[in-house]
Task: inverse folding
């Protein structure tokens, strides 16, 4: 499982304009700094887990979201212990074989604090899963 921070509006870094033009207008939505986090997961047999989107809000909007996507809110827009608990119960537990999987699972996370609290370790143990943590700065090497 890994989290990827994204923004609602990512202006292009290249434009097409006449040579020598001193100003190029780029239309944006004004949300360049408004961010959200997408959580992706893959099982050991290559099956993708349902994605989770974490919005930087306190309340869930009344908008309808596509089926198969879990949505969570966090005032800072990233994973914390409460969102981690939601991911475990709503995404990880519903993986193929899920909660009643006969073999123990292995969850590999980065070094983020929310992933390795005692309550999260206990919850993973109840789900018959072990935790492996990738040390800070080494995620890109995996």
Result:
């Amino acid at each position: 499982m890994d989290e990827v921070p994204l923004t609602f509006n990512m202006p292009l870094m290249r434009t097409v304009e006449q040579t020598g033009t001193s100003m190029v207008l780029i239309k944006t939505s004004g949300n360049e700094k408004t961010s959200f986090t997408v959580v992706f997961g893959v099982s050991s047999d290559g099956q993708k887990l349902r994605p989770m989107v974490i919005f930087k809000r306190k309340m869930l909007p009344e908008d309808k979201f596509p089926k198969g996507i879990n949505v969570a809110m966090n005032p800072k827009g990233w994973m914390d212990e409460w969102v981690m608990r939601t991911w475990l119960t709503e995404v990880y537990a519903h993986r193929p074989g899920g909660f009643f999987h006969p073999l123990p699972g292995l969850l590999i996370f980065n070094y983020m604090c929310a992933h390795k609290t005692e309550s999260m370790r206990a919850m993973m143990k109840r789900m018959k899963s072990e935790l492996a943590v990738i040390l800070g700065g080494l995620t890109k090497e995996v």
